[in-house]
Design brief:
single chain, mainly alpha, 5 helices, metal-binding, magnesium ion binding, DCTPP, hydrolase, magnesium
Length: 123
């Protein structure tokens, strides 16, 4: 089984939440969409995108990690739906004036205290 450090090496560190936030803010501003990007509207759009993401898994039953039995088209569709969810989540946090990255790190610390590693658990 892979450790969290080994798993983390598979992902690119080249894109930050700050970069995404700035790109999304510019994208919305360039198109005059800020007027529509209220917290409520962004939340509803996010919920819709989560629904689209759910549809991908709806009739598949359990899915193996790494999606070994999925076609490249299925994986690309999943990437697009996950990206839509991430985009709306980052935009919502930005419009609400929240630092999503810091909030996530604080939540991990809070969860670590709430759910400590059991003494007999192996890693």
């Amino acid at each position: 089984m892979e450790s969290s450090c080994e798993n983390a090496r598979k992902y690119s560190n080249s894109v930050s939440l700050q970069e995404l936030r700035d790109s999304l803010a510019g994208f919305a501003e360039d198109r005059g969409w800020d007027q529509y990007h209220s917290p409520r509207n962004l939340l509803l759009a996010l919920v819709g995108e989560v629904g689209g993401l759910s549809e991908i898994f709806q009739w598949k039953g359990e899915v193996a990690k790494g999606l070994p039995n999925w076609s490249s088209d299925e994986k690309e569709h999943l990437e697009e739906e996950l990206s839509d969810v991430l985009i709306y989540l980052i935009r919502l946090a930005d419009v609400c004036g929240l630092d999503l990255g810091q909030a996530a790190l604080a939540k991990i610390v809070k969860n670590a205290k709430k759910y400590p590693v059991a003494a007999n658990q192996t890693t």
